Structure formats: C-alpha cells, structure tokens
C-alpha cells in the first residue's frame, strides 16, 4: 500500500536527464501526520522505494535482454540491470532532500514520474553504502552517462530538418 505519491513535471517514461528534476513526495494525509517526517530534514539524501505502476504486466521481463534494447551492450538478466520492467515492478532511487514541509518531502533527482506510488521513504546512511570498491561492467558507464545529467538542450529551429 503506498505511503505517498510523487508529484513532478515528468510525465513520460524516459530513461535520462533526471538530475535536475524537482519532485514533491506527498504523504497520505489520511494515514500520516507531519510527525511521521520529524527529523527527516536532518539528512541530505533519501532512499525512495516505489512502484513502477505504469509498466503493463505484459511488458514485465523475466529473462535476459540487452539493456535499453541496445545490441551493442551484452545480454543481461533482469536481476543484473535496473530496468523498470521488473517482475515485481519495484524501483529504488536515491535522491537529494531539499526540504520537508508538512506532509510534503521536496527532493531533487528522484527518477520517478508524476503519480508514482511511493512504498517507503528512508534516510540514506553512508554506512549502508558499499564498504569495498564497487565493480561493474563497462557498458553501465555508457548507459548511465546522461541518466542524472540535466535536461537535454532544446533543439534550435534551424537544427530541425
């Protein structure tokens, strides 16, 4: 059962440019009071667990595929990537906390579209981060290159064919 919903300007399920997306995570006022968020503002970052509610059950992946359907990247099983078409449609994101205002949690860089149901909000603690060097395949660097960059520059009218 969701504890909150995401509110932002992002409506399309696009993969990149999440870094400058401001969002408000609005807690369910029927279940929570602002006390549920007491002291959250003493943290700089949050982990947000959410439901990929717009992924149709027929689109769920259970096997290997090329990430983002890019044949230049190797096949990777669904549990070896972070795509949205996951078996339980659960997403986890880390984002910057800007402020808490009543039942509203203002964040930056949450990679969830408007209307996304939030299942949990947790403060990010550096002690839960890896204690060893993080190792990952080279293709991940390519995949993530623009993920948290700012919005793409709009094309100039002269550049449009």
Automatic annotation (TrEMBL):
Methyltransferase in keyword set: yes
Keyword tags: Methyltransferase, S-adenosyl-L-methionine, Transferase
One BP term from GO: methylation
Keyword S-adenosyl-L-methionine among record annotations: yes
UniProt cross-references to CDD domains, sorted A to Z: UPF0066
Pfam families for the chain: TrmO_N
Domain TsaA-like: 1-133
Listed GO MF terms: methyltransferase activity
InterPro entries, per database record: TrmO-like_N (IPR023370), YaeB-like (IPR040372), YaeB-like_sf (IPR036413), YaeB_N_sf (IPR036414)
Alphabetical list of Gene3D superfamilies matching this protein: YaeB-like
Family: Belongs to the tRNA methyltransferase O family.
Record-linked PANTHER family: TRNA (ADENINE(37)-N6)-METHYLTRANSFERASE
Protein name as annotated: SAM-dependent methyltransferase
């Amino acid at each position: 059962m969701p504890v909150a919903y995401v509110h932002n300007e992002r409506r399309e399920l696009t993969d990149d440019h999440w870094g400058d997306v401001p969002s408000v995570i609005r807690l369910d006022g029927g279940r929570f009071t602002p006390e549920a968020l007491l002291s959250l503002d003493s943290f700089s970052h949050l982990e947000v667990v959410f439901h990929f509610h717009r992924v149709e059950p027929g689109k769920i992946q259970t096997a290997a595929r090329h990430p983002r359907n890019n044949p230049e990247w190797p096949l990777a099983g669904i549990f070896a990537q972070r795509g949205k078409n996951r078996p339980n449609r659960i997403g986890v994101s880390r984002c910057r906390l800007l402020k808490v205002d009543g039942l509203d949690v203002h964040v930056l860089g949450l990679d969830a579209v408007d209307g996304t149901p939030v299942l949990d909000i947790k403060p990010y603690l550096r002690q839960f981060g890896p204690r060893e060097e993080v190792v990952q395949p080279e293709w991940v660097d390519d995949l993530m290159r623009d993920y948290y960059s700012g919005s793409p520059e709009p094309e100039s009218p002269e550049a449009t064919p």
